[in-house]
């Protein structure tokens, strides 16, 4: 049983920030040249995708009824 619910918005935000870090690490290591302003579309685009994923996830979870787990079932009379 997972300790927390899966949140794809946070996953996408983390991947966007990781990709931004990799791009700038490659620039710092001399593998390629990255303009200073490239961070803006990468971060904003990643946050936009994360927000969209969070909205879609919330809409899906709100629409579908939750199933009771065996622990939630109360004993009969």
Automatic annotation (TrEMBL):
The portions of this protein that span the membrane are 35-56
Keywords recorded for this protein, A-Z: Membrane, Transmembrane, Transmembrane helix
Report if keyword Membrane is assigned: yes
Q: Which protein is depicted?
A: Integral membrane protein
Organism of origin is Streptomyces hintoniae
């Amino acid at each position: 049983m997972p300790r927390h619910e899966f949140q794809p918005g946070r996953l996408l935000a983390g991947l966007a920030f990781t990709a931004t870090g990799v791009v700038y690490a490659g620039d710092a290591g001399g593998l390629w040249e990255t303009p200073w302003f490239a961070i803006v579309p990468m971060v904003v685009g990643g946050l936009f995708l994360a927000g969209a994923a969070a909205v879609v996830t919330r809409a899906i979870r709100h629409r579908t009824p939750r199933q009771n787990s065996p622990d939630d079932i109360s004993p009969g009379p």
